[in-house]
Design a protein that fits this description.
Layout lengths: L4 H8 L3 H8 L9 H14 L5 H8 L4 E6 L10 H12 L3 E6 L4 H13 L5 E11 L10 E8 L6 E4 L1 H14 L5 E6 L4 H16 L9 E4 L3 H6 L1 H6 L4 E4 L2 H13 L9 E3 L5 H4 L8 E2 L3 H12 L10 E4 L3 E2 L5
Parallel strand pairs: 1-2, 1-3, 3-4, 4-5, 5-11, 6-7, 6-8, 8-9
Antiparallel strand pairs: 10-12
Helix pairs in contact: 1-2, 1-3, 2-3, 5-13, 7-8
C-alpha cells in the first residue's frame, strides 16, 4: 500500500499542512524543530515518497518536457525523433511526456492543455516529415521548439534537417565514384526537401566542374510507382548514375532497370535519400543512401529547449544528413 502524506502526519502527530511544508521545504513556514524532526523520522520509518506531480504544481516548475507529434510514433523511421528526445531529456534529468495525435486537432489541443497543466519545462512540437506548419495557438503560452518543421514567420526556434547539404552529399558520392552524367529524380510534391535536395545536387555538380544539365532532372510521384515510371526517361538520357529523391523512388527505379537488363551499379549507379532501413538495407544490391537524422533532430530539440544550443541560421538549426554507403554506387 502506498504511504500518503496523511499517514506521515498521523505518525508524527502533526497536520497534513505541516508535512507538506517540510516535504516541500517551504520558505517562511513556521515549524518547530521538534515537529520537523518527527516528520522527517516518520518519512523515513514509513518509506514515504513525495508525489512528484504535486510537488511540481506547488513549485511551478517540473522535470517534464512535452513532445506533441502528428504520426511519428507510428512511422518506424521517424519514430527515432522520440527516441532521440527521450534519451537527451533523461540525460539532463528530465522525463519526456509524449502525445501522438495522428493529426487530430482536438486531441492535439487536449494534449497541449494537459502538458501546460503539468507545468512542463517546455514543449517540442514535431511532424513526421519536414514541412512548414501553422503553430497551434496554445504553444504561445510555453517555451516551444519545432522539430522537423518550422513556422513561416520564424517566430519559434526550429530544428530541421539540412536538405541542401544532404542533396550535395548524395551527389558527391556519385561524383567520387567517377560519374559525371548524373540524373536527379525529384518529387512532384512541394516541400523543403524537393527544393533543398535539388539545390544540393546542383551545388555539388558546380563545385566539381561538372555540367548542370536540367534535362537530367526528372520529376516523379514520391513513391515506388513514380520511380518505376520514370525509368525509361532516365535510361534514354544516357545518365550513368541516378540520385533519387527518396528510397521508395529508388526502389521503383531498381525494378525498372532490372526489367531492362541493366545492372546496379555496373551499368547505372543509384543513391537514395531517407535511409528507410526496411527498404534500403534489403534491396539487392543494398541501396546507398543519405539518412534523415531523426534521432539527432529529437536530441537537438531538447538541447535547444533547455538553452544548451541556439539555432545556427536565423530561427532554424540545421542538422546534417549523413551518408549511408552500401553497394549501389
Amino acid at each position: 500500500m502506498t504511504t500518503t502524506m496523511r499517514d506521515v502526519a498521523k505518525a508524527a502527530g502533526v497536520s497534513v499542512a505541516t508535512v507538506s511544508h517540510v516535504v516541500n521545504d517551504k520558505p517562511g513556514a513556521r515549524i518547530g524543530d521538534d515537529a520537523r524532526r518527527r516528520v522527517q523520522e516518520a518519512i523515513v520509518a514509513l518509506g514515504y515518497r513525495p508525489n512528484a506531480l504535486a510537488k511540481t504544481l506547488s513549485e511551478g516548475t517540473s522535470r517534464f518536457i512535452g513532445l506533441v507529434a502528428d504520426a511519428i510514433a507510428t512511422t518506424p523511421f521517424a519514430g527515432q525523433i522520440i527516441h532521440g528526445a527521450q534519451d537527451e531529456a533523461w540525460r539532463h534529468g528530465f522525463v519526456l511526456l509524449v502525445a501522438n495525435t495522428e493529426g487530430n486537432a482536438a486531441a492535439e489541443s487536449d494534449a497541449i492543455a494537459m502538458m501546460l497543466e503539468h507545468q512542463v519545462r517546455g514543449i517540442l512540437y514535431s511532424t513526421w516529415y519536414h514541412r512548414e506548419i501553422e503553430v497551434p495557438p496554445p504553444l504561445q503560452h510555453t517555451e516551444t521548439v519545432l522539430v522537423n518543421c518550422f513556422a513561416g514567420d520564424g517566430a519559434f526556434p526550429a530544428v530541421v534537417p539540412d536538405e541542401e547539404q544532404g542533396g550535395r552529399t548524395a551527389t558527391e558520392e556519385l561524383l567520387a565514384a567517377g560519374h559525371r552524367r548524373i540524373a536527379f529524380v525529384n518529387t512532384t510534391s512541394p516541400s523543403p526537401a524537393r527544393v533543398g535536395r535539388l539545390a544540393g545536387y546542383r551545388a555539388a555538380l558546380t563545385a566539381a566542374g561538372a555540367d548542370v544539365d536540367d534535362s537530367l532532372v526528372f520529376e516523379a510521384a514520391p513513391e515506388q510507382e513514380g520511380g518505376y515510371n520514370v525509368t525509361e526517361a532516365v535510361v534514354s538520357s544516357g545518365a550513368t548514375a541516378v540520385f533519387c529523391h527518396n528510397d521508395r523512388v529508388a526502389m521503383g527505379l531498381y525494378d525498372g532497370l532490372r526489367e531492362r537488363g541493366l545492372r546496379i551499379p555496373g551499368d547505372v549507379a543509384v543513391i537514395g535519400f531517407d535511409n528507410q532501413d526496411v527498404i534500403a538495407a534489403h534491396l539487392r544490391p543494398p541501396l546507398s543512401t543519405v539518412a534523415l537524422p531523426h534521432y539527432e533532430l529529437g536530441a537537438a530539440g531538447v538541447r535547444t529547449l533547455l538553452g544548451l544550443e541556439s539555432p545556427s541560421s536565423g530561427a532554424r538549426q540545421l542538422v546534417a544528413c549523413p551518408s549511408i554507403p552500401r553497394e549501389s554506387v
